[in-house]
Amino acid sequence: MGVVVCGDGHQMLYRFRGxxxxxxxxxxxxxxxxxxxxxxxxxxxxxxxxxxxxxxxxESRQLAGLGGETRVSKALPADxxxxxxxxxxxxxxxxxxxxxxxxxxxxxWVGGIEGYNLQDLEDLHALSKGWRDRVKGKKLLQExxxxxxxxxxxxxxxxxxxxxxxxxxxxxxxxxxxxxxKLRRNAVTDELxxxxxxxxxxxxxxxxxxxxxxAEDFTFDPFNPENEKEPWIDEMNLLYVACTRAxxxxxxxxxxxxxxxxxxxxxxxxxxxTPMVFRKKQVAAA
Length: 286
Prior knowledge:
The chain is an alpha/beta fold. Helix content is 38%, strand content 12%. The chain has helices at residues 44-56, 90-101, 118-128, 138-143, 147-157, 160-172, 176-186, 201-204, 229-243, 254-267, and strands spanning 38-39, 64-65, 71-73, 83-87, 107-109, 187-188, 196-200, 209-214, 246-251.
């Protein structure tokens, strides 16, 4: 009896956890291969965006969108009854939730609100106020005895999640505990009751929604020659997964817009269509 193996290497997201692409296993070297290049989730517009991402990854096979009519824009229509925002980071999800909390929006958190570590930001807020006794996560105190050191490390490392956390702390300041309480009160466990669904792009894999907005915390530069190849592939895969969650309307972010512009410039001859350039992976000294 034969074995059927199905997968999509362009949706491999968990290399950082040790995941590997099983389709590259040596025991499949002589397998008969068939490509599934049609999707009935979305139409041609979303497929076109997805194909731009795939093109830079070197994929020659085109994804065909055979679903209903789809639109791609910079923002979702304001009158939608429900929208989904997909973020690169957990902090990005919280930032989006805070931006909507005062509207009274009912928010569905994919995987549950408890999975987004609001307590970590509450601890950082307490540290920023000098309330060390209110910090529940003792690891924070061990690594950063005070808030100034946290800010210093964030600045030196340019860690995007740390810097977004600082932005939240300093933007909302004294109001943050009450805002977090509102977030918990407004969280719903039935998505049908929600006006907004929030998720990281990682958690969105396998899911779909009518209207999807890509958040602005996908901050990597896809055309930076200092990118290492494997992390670059992982980020491009994440964008590919995120944009293909949309069934009707996709609102792209600035990173996706940059990819789209680069694709069109190369296609139309305004830029040379040269291979992607990557920095060689650094090998740790023995």
